[in-house]
Design brief:
With 140 residues, the chain is an alpha+beta fold. It has 3 helices and 8 strands; from the N terminus they run E-H-E-E-E-H-E-H-E-E-E. Strand 3 and strand 4 form a beta hairpin. The structure holds zinc ion (ZN).
């Protein structure tokens, strides 16, 4: 079944991913299901899910170094929601369709993301002030 449009995760920029994992797992009962450094985005990530692993995940992101775009985000705005991510069936065709509508893309072509996904970001100016990520699962 198509998962097109499913809210895959909400990403939260944090200064200390270990502490943040503790908060979300101990206080809300979420479970860490995946940890990965995504070097081309300059971030350390941790994916947390519900007990059943169904529903939308929380992605914690911590900058890998001071050149990471997340470092700039934390400096400017502090910790908080950074982006939301929707699944799409075919990311290339989604990007081409958005481009046709005049939507401002940050990534014109997908890049490798975490969790076996191809991802691309859409500029918040075109998405009501929200940084939106699209993700296509390469394999489960
Ligand atoms: Zn994300």
């Amino acid at each position: 079944m198509s998962k097109n449009g499913f809210l895959y995760h909400v990403a939260i920029a944090v200064k200390d991913i270990k502490k943040a994992e503790d908060i979300y797992s101990k206080l809300l009962g979420l479970r860490v299901v995946h940890r990965e450094d995504v070097v081309n985005y300059g971030v350390k990530t941790s994916m947390l899910c519900s007990e059943s692993e169904e529903g939308t995940a929380v992605e914690l992101i911590e900058p890998l170094d001071e050149n990471s775009p997340i470092s700039q985000f934390l400096e400017k705005r502090g910790e908080g929601v950074h982006h939301i991510c929707f699944l799409v069936d075919d990311i290339e065709s989604s990007l081409r369709a958005l481009e046709k509508e005049g939507v401002r893309l940050i990534d014109e072509h997908p890049r490798p993301g975490s969790y076996n996904c191809k991802v691309a970001f859409i500029h918040p100016k075109s998405m009501n002030g929200v940084l939106v990520e699209l993700a296509e699962k390469v394999k489960d």
